[in-house]
Design brief:
single chain; 255 residues; alpha/beta; 8 helices
Length: 255
């Protein structure tokens, strides 16, 4: 990896890194020499990822974190500060999605609506608020918000999820303006339908084929398809790029 694209020795906090896309991110950043913080509610899954990273001679630390809980996020920031004295990269990846049932918006229970917004919107807000002070110390930071290409599609029957990811993309624009003077960039990545080890009972084989049929590249999207853009956004190579939405969906939503 050439120097401008290097993430070696960067302290990289990844929320929801115990499975799926976050797990792939954690393992890849660690293999690139980063010090990875696995911020995850499910400690057992987080420990499994930590062991996978250790097996590859990488460096990882698990911090049990509920991104929707302010005190939990404060403890995350304090743990990072104690361990490293700084934070370089925050990847806001934790979200509620795979467990959601597809249904018309008027049938979404209010409690479920509020829970999705709490985790998917308030969570990234709390994490950024807690970790930005550690980035400001060195006048260098990268925040990568994992939104969704479904925002562009206006996908039906997931209104709470679509609303939350739209908000996250909008937050990225505004936060970029606020943090630019501190040397901190903020960008959003909008993945397409990414298939991981996490089961999704609401997606039938027929629906999967329809999703792939919308793409210019006719194969299932996997977490590894997101690595290039996320590594770029986390490195010096993207120093003059902020406030952007980058869609990685195999061409499903291109004009």
């Amino acid at each position: 990896m050439s120097e401008p694209f290097s993430v070696a020795n960067k302290v990289v906090i990844i929320t929801g890194a115990g499975q799926g896309i976050g797990r792939t991110f954690a393992k890849t950043f660690a293999s690139g020499g980063a010090k990875v913080v696995i911020a995850e509610r499910n400690v057992e899954k987080a420990r499994n990822v930590e062991r996978e990273i250790a097996a590859g001679n990488g460096h990882a630390m698990v911090v049990e974190t509920d991104v929707a809980d302010e005190d939990s996020v404060k403890r995350l920031a304090a743990s990072v500060d104690r361990a490293f004295g700084r934070a370089d990269v925050l990847i806001n990846n934790a979200a509620i999605f795979s467990t959601l049932e597809m249904r018309p918006f008027e049938q979404i229970p209010l409690a479920e609506w509020e829970q999705v917004l709490r985790v998917n919107v308030t969570g990234p807000f709390l994490c950024a608020r807690a970790l930005v002070p550690l980035m400001r110390r060195n006048k260098w930071g990268r925040i990568v918000n994992m939104a969704s290409g479904a925002v562009t599609l206006g996908r039906p029957n997931y209104l709470h999820y679509i609303a939350s990811k739209s908000a996250l993309a909008g937050m990225s624009h505004s936060m970029a303006r606020e943090l630019g003077p501190d040397g901190i960039t903020v960008n959003a990545v909008l993945p397409g339908a990414t298939f991981t080890e996490i089961p999704r009972k609401t997606v039938t084989p027929e629906q999967k084929e329809r999703i792939i049929g919308m793409q210019s590249i006719p194969r299932p999207q996997v977490p590894e398809d997101l690595l290039g853009v996320v590594l770029f956004l986390a490195s010096d190579a993207s120093a003059f790029m902020t406030g952007q939405e980058i869609t990685v969906d195999g061409g499903a939503t291109h004009p």
